[in-house]
TrEMBL record:
UniProt keyword annotation of Cytoplasm present: no
Similarity comment: family membership: Belongs to the AB hydrolase superfamily. Lipase family.
Membrane-topology descriptor: Single-pass type II membrane protein
Lineage, opening ranks: Eukaryota, Fungi, Dikarya, Basidiomycota, Ustilaginomycotina
Organism: Malassezia equina
GO molecular function: phospholipase activity; triacylglycerol lipase activity
InterPro entries in the cross-refs: AB_hydrolase_fold, ATG15_Lipase, Fungal_lipase-type
Physiological role: Lipase which is essential for lysis of subvacuolar cytoplasm to vacuole targeted bodies and intravacuolar autophagic bodies. Involved in the lysis of intravacuolar multivesicular body (MVB) vesicles. The intravacuolar membrane disintegration by ATG15 is critical to life span extension.
GO terms of biological process kind: multivesicular body membrane disassembly; neutral lipid catabolic process; phosphatidylserine catabolic process; piecemeal microautophagy of the nucleus
Keywords: Autophagy, Endosome, Glycoprotein, Hydrolase, Lipid degradation, Lipid metabolism, Membrane, Signal, Signal-anchor, Transmembrane, Transmembrane helix
Catalytic activity: a diacylglycerol + H2O = a monoacylglycerol + a fatty acid + H(+); a triacylglycerol + H2O = a diacylglycerol + a fatty acid + H(+); a monoacylglycerol + H2O = glycerol + a fatty acid + H(+)
Subunit composition and interactions: Binds to both phosphatidylinositol (PI) and phosphatidylinositol 3,5-bisphosphate (PIP2).
Protein name, UniProt field: triacylglycerol lipase
Amino acid sequence: MRVWVALVIATALVLAVWRRSSPPSSHVPRVRTVVRPVRRLQDVRGYLARRATVPVARVAEMTRWETWEDVAQTWPDVSDRHTLRMLARFACWAYYETVPTHLPDAPGWAWSTKFGWKEGGLRGQVFATAHNETVVVALKGTSASFLPGGTTGQRDKDNDNLLFSCCCARVDSSWKPTCDCYHDPQTCDSRCMGRTLIERSLYYPAATDLYNNISYLYPNSQVWVTGHSLGGVLASFLGATFGVPAVAFESPGDRVAATRLHLPIPPPTTPDEDAYALVPVTHVYHTADALATGQCVGRTSICSRTGFAMETRCHVGQSIVYDTVRYLGWSVGVLPHRITVLISDLLAHDWEPRIRAAGSARAVHGWLPRPVPSLPGRAVPAPQRETLCQGT
């Protein structure tokens, strides 16, 4: 009897110590959501099938005759820093074939499955809540051969040059164009570019097939899509195509490619409204990222010297932009494009206190203080539509 009592007491002590050493689940921030309306095509799959049979000259007119519907969807709350950081981690894990099955910093979420790792193209991971109420598809971005997921490097590069160049990735006369749409420095056949992207954009058709498979596997789930860089652009395309919430991290400008691919963009409600700003897509990037801001251009840029024609800068949807150049004094470059910069630095701290502290430090050291905007307790910058960005 005494032995049993001793065992019970010992067990109780072990459990008490374990509970004290383990942080309460309430201390781990949970994902926040909001319900918002989305306008999307009633028959997306039918539209994609018809688009494949219609001449490119008529594709732009197709959406005028399609039936649109307004549906309420559960979005990730992009004003919440912890929610953005969790999605950024998912986007980071998309670069790795093996990821944690248990996610300690994402309570209520777990790894579900992976896709594309036996092929040489589109790859990523799928995460879900306990009962699959919400599913997140995370798409891998561009990989170098020596980095995780790097065996797709050449195909990633081919897609980058098709999607983000002004015309067939011809930076100057020494470049071999990736398509036949370039005529001279002042002429690029836009219809030819549209046809080329529809026929040769290897990852977009694969991404739409992937979404169809995911929606079949999770018929009753709310689907979100996310990704970093090229993966973020593909997430943006899926968000625009299927009318589902998408969060893209540090993606190059996707507006030109969205136009050329003739994505089903919802019609504006007023003549002055920018239709491309209405899609359920949120871009997150900072101003020191040369790729996301369209500053890695020209024959002497690091992008050009490594064979990338990254010439676009405008985004669809809304954008959360951390002005790290103005308020933190960061230098523009390619290295800040890494997803780890967002996760371990910008999304690890609330933005408004961060820039106010940086301004105080500049004042203490005698530097000319930059004006700090009025941000009443904002953890992240306010989302804004890039309505003035109508070009590349």
